[in-house]
């Protein structure tokens, strides 16, 4: 089908299923275990209803905001997904250009299929903000080298993934072998500066990672540190106490611990706990959320409950698989239009007008 026929994020997934090799599609689309968490990530948004305001002048709507000090046109970023060349030969470079053109941020994965230099080199202008997702290695010298490289390349946020002490028990794992060996498989697409894949995945998992390590990260870099994969309010408070600049409530798109709660479900208690502890959410600490964001209304709900911004994973991969860079831009335009429409119908002119009392969460925990 032509790109114009793609009218929402779900349309891209159906096409991706047709155009991708089955190994790539199953790598992108699967979750862990029985996919309970993956399914719930999106379904939880269906239990939040709106309390729209009427009679507000919404002839002009401003969707722009700031994330870690960078101006963005929309409170949405593309989250890190490894090996993007499995989706499209331009891989992460296409995502760099699409996000640049749209004025939003790309979080670059540690396990990218292009080198960091290639991806930062694909910026549409020198000031385009980009973040790096970090898988910490048992080899901390290597981790330090990656961070130094990030600094050199002007990365503005370091998102340390903390929900992967081991690789999750994915349903897809029975396909892993094919995936590594296939034509379009990881072996062929991983940037060769990081070695071969068979030895690479274990290098980027460190089961010993713990709270005491934060001080070390802070001592070696000035880039703000955000923990990606926080899954309960107690850890949100700990991240703040350890001097992180923020957190991403995330369960890795349901690819790690099955039965981890959907991030939107814990967002209200996370915000309450941070406020209770005295965290200044206007200044010192930013809360992001990803997992199951598929609609502009999902973005609105997350913001109403306190998120500074939201990340998408699979939708961008599907759009990239189907139509390359243009597909990703089309996807972002669809989400932008949906979000703008939601803002108008909710009676909100700007991001700061979006408040908790605009959503009804009485049924959120009901499932
Ligand atoms: C991911 N995700 C991920 N996260 C991370 O920290 N490092 C990584 O290398 C990857 N790789 C990755 C590959 C694929 C194929 C997927 C689908 C996801 C998780 C990602 O950053 C994000 O948390 C989720 O994808 C968000 O959920 P949705 O939008 O996919 O529902």
List the helices and strands and how they pair.
Elements: H1 9-19, H2 22-29, H3 36-43, E1 49-50, E2 65-67, E3 70-72, E4 76-78, H4 91-102, E5 105-108, H5 116-121, E6 130-134, H6 140-152, E7 158-161, H7 176-181, H8 186-189, H9 200-203, H10 213-220, E8 225-230, H11 233-241, E9 246-249, H12 263-276, E10 286-290, H13 296-304, E11 309-312, H14 314-345, E12 359-360
Parallel strand pairs: 4-5, 4-11, 5-6, 6-7, 7-8, 8-9, 9-10, 10-11
Antiparallel strand pairs: 1-12, 2-3
Bound molecules: ligand FNR.
Could you please describe the fold and organization of this structure?
The structure is a single chain. The chain is α/β, with parallel strands linked by helices. It contains 14 helices and twelve strands. The chain has helices at residues 9-19, 22-29, 36-43, 91-102, 116-121, 140-152, 176-181, 186-189, 200-203, 213-220, 233-241, 263-276, 296-304, 314-345; strands spanning 49-50, 65-67, 70-72, 76-78, 105-108, 130-134, 158-161, 225-230, 246-249, 286-290, 309-312, 359-360. The strands form three sheets. Strands 4-5-6-7-8-9-10-11 form an eight-stranded parallel β-barrel, surrounded by six helices. The model is unreliable at 180-193 (pLDDT under 50). Ligand FNR is lined by residues 27-28, 41, 79-82, 109, 111, 133, 161, 228, 250, 252-253, 255, 290-293, 312-314. One of its GO terms (cellular component) is mitochondrial intermembrane space. Residues 1-364 form the FMN hydroxy acid dehydrogenase domain. It comes from Circinella minor.
Brief sketch in words of this structure:
The protein is of the alpha/beta class. The chain is built from 14 helices and twelve strands.
């Amino acid at each position: 089908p032509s790109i114009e026929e793609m009218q929402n994020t779900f349309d891209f997934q159906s096409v991706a299923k047709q155009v991708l090799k089955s190994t790539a599609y199953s790598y992108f689309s699967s979750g862990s275990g029985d996919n309970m968490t993956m399914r719930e990530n999106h379904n939880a948004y269906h239990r939040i209803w709106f309390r729209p305001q009427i009679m507000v002048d919404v002839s002009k709507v401003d969707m722009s905001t700031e994330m870690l000090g960078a101006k963005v046109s929309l409170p949405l970023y593309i989250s890190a997904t490894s090996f993007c060349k499995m989706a499209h030969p331009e891989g992460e470079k296409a995502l760099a250009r699409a996000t640049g053109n749209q004025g939003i941020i790309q979080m670059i994965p540690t396990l990218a299929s292009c080198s960091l230099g290639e991806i930062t080199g694909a910026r549409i202008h020198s000031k385009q903000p980009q973040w790096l997702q970090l898988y910490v290695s048992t080899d901390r010298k290597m981790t330090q080298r990656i961070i130094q490289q990030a600094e050199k390349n002007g990365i503005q946020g370091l998102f340390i993934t903390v929900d992967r002490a081991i690789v999750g028990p994915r349903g897809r794992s029975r396909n892993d072998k094919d995936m590594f060996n296939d034509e379009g498989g990881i072996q062929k697409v991983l940037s060769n500066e990081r070695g071969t894949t068979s030895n690479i995945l274990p290098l980027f998992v460190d089961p010993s990672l713990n709270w005491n390590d934060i001080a070390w990260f802070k001592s070696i870099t000035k880039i703000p540190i955000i923990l990606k994969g926080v899954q309960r309010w107690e850890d949100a408070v700990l991240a703040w106490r350890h001097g992180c600049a923020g957190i991403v409530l995330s369960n890795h798109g349901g690819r790690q611990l099955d039965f981890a709660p959907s991030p939107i479900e814990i967002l209200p208690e996370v915000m309450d706990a941070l406020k209770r502890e005295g965290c200044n959410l206007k200044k010192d600490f930013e809360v992001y959320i990803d997992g199951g964001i598929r609609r502009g209304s999902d973005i609105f709900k997350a913001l109403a409950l306190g998120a500074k911004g939201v990340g998408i994973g699979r939708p961008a991969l599907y759009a990239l698989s189907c139509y390359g860079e243009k597909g990703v831009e089309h996807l972002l335009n669809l989400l932008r239009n949906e979000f703008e429409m939601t803002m108008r119908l909710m009676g909100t002119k700007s991001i700061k007008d979006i408040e908790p009392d605009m959503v009804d969460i009485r049924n959120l925990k009901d499932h």
